[in-house]
Amino acid sequence: MLNIEEIFKILPQRFPFVMIDRILELEPKKKVVAIKNISYNEEFFGGHFPGKPIMPGVLIIEAMAQASIILFYESKDALKGKDMVYYLGGVKVRFFHPVIPGDQLKLVIEPLKILSNAAIVKAQAFVADKEVASGEMSFVAKEDAK
Amino acid sequence: MQDIDIEVRNIVAEIVEKSPEDIKPESRFVEDLGMDSMMALEILAAIEKKYKISIPEEKLAEFKTLNDTLNVVKENLCKKDNNA
C-alpha cells in the first residue's frame, strides 16, 4: 500500500536505520501493518552473533516504532508536509521467538491513545503468523526546527 | 479509600515505579514523583482502558496530583453513567 519511496516521505530515518520495507495496510487512527524483510546481509548480523545470526530485540522495537510513526503521521492532517522528529518515551515489550535471516517481520500497530503531539500504541511483531514480540510504546512528535 | 481510589493509585504507582504507599493523594506528580509528560500519557491511556472511558486531551494538564486525577476520572465515569 505504501512502497519504500512513499515511506521515505514520512520517515526521517535513512540507511542503515530503515527498519520497515513496505506498508501493507493503513487505516489512519486505527491500524497499520508493515513488513521488514530480514536478510543475512543485514549489517548487525556480523556481530549479533558471529555464526549465530539473531535480530537484536531493540531493532524489532525500532521497527515497531517506525511503523508507529507512519500510523501517527497518517492520523494527523496537521502534520502533512512538515518535517518531524520523533522521540521514544517508554517501551514495554516482551520477546517470544528469535528472528533470523530469511524471516519476514510483520509489524501490527494499533493506537491506545493519540494526542496532538504524542501517542501510545499497542505493537505486535509476527513471523509467518507466529507472534515473536509484543508490547506498548509511547512517543512524542516535534516539528524539526532546522 | 474507595476501590477506584486504590485502583488509580496503583496505576500511577506502576508507571512512576514507586510503591502505592508512597503516593499520597496530594503528592505532586512532577515535583514529588518525578513524572514526565510521557508517563502522564501512559496513565491517561491506562485509565481509559481500565474504565472504558475517553478523557479529552485538554484534561491531561489537570493531572497534577492523585486527587486531581481522581476528580477527572470520576467526572468522566459520571458522564458515562448518565449516557448509559
Outline of the structure:
The complex is a heterodimer of chains A (146) and B (84). Chain A is of the alpha+beta class and 146 residues long.
SSE blueprint and pairings:
The complex is a heterodimer of chains A (146) and B (84).
Chain A: H1 4-8, E1 22-27, E2 31-37, H2 57-74, E3 84-95, E4 104-114, E5 118-127, E6 130-143
Chain B: H1 3-16, H2 29-33, H3 37-51, H4 66-83
Helix pairs in contact in B: 1-3
What are its keywords?
heterodimer; A: 146 residues; alpha+beta; Thiol Ester Dehydrase, Chain A; six-stranded antiparallel beta sheet; 2 helices; 6 strands; 41% strand; B: 84 residues; mainly alpha; Non-ribosomal Peptide Synthetase Peptidyl Carrier Protein, Chain A; 4 helices
How many helices of chain B does DSSP assign?
Answer: 4
If strands are numbered along the chain, what order do they take across the biggest sheet of chain A?
1-2-4-5-6-3
Alpha carbon gyration radius of chain A:
15 Å
The CATH C-level class name of chain A: Alpha Beta
CATH architecture of chain B, by name, is Orthogonal Bundle
The most extensive interface between chains reads: A-B, 12 and 12 residues
**Which CATH-level-2 architecture of chain A?**
Roll
The count of strands of chain B amounts to 0
Please write the CATH class name of chain B: Mainly Alpha
Please state roughly what percent of the residues of chain A sit in beta strands, choosing from under 5%, 5-15%, 15-25%, 25-35%, 35-45% or over 45%: 35-45%
Helix content range of the residues of chain A, please? 10-25%
Assembly context of the chains: heterodimer
How does the overall form of chain A come out from the CA principal axes? globular
Q: Helix fraction of chain B?
A: 55-70%
Helix-strand topology string of chain A: HEEHEEEE
Notes on the structure:
- The complex is a heterodimer of chains A (146) and B (84).
- Chain A has 146 residues and is of the alpha+beta class.
- Chain A has a single domain (4-143), classed as Thiol Ester Dehydrase, Chain A.
- In chain A, 16% of the residues lie in helices and 41% in strands.
- Chain A has 2 helices and 6 strands; from the N terminus they run H-E-E-H-E-E-E-E.
- In chain A, strands 1-2-4-5-6-3 form a 6-stranded antiparallel beta sheet, covered by helices on one side.
- In chain A, a hairpin with a 3-residue loop joins strand 1 and strand 2 (31-37).
- Chain A is globular, with a radius of gyration of 15 Å.
- Chain B has 84 residues and is mainly α.
- Chain B has a single domain, classed as Orthogonal Bundle (Non-ribosomal Peptide Synthetase Peptidyl Carrier Protein, Chain A), CATH 1.10.1200.10.
- Chain B is globular and about 35 Å long.
- The interface between A and B is medium-sized, with 12 and 12 residues.
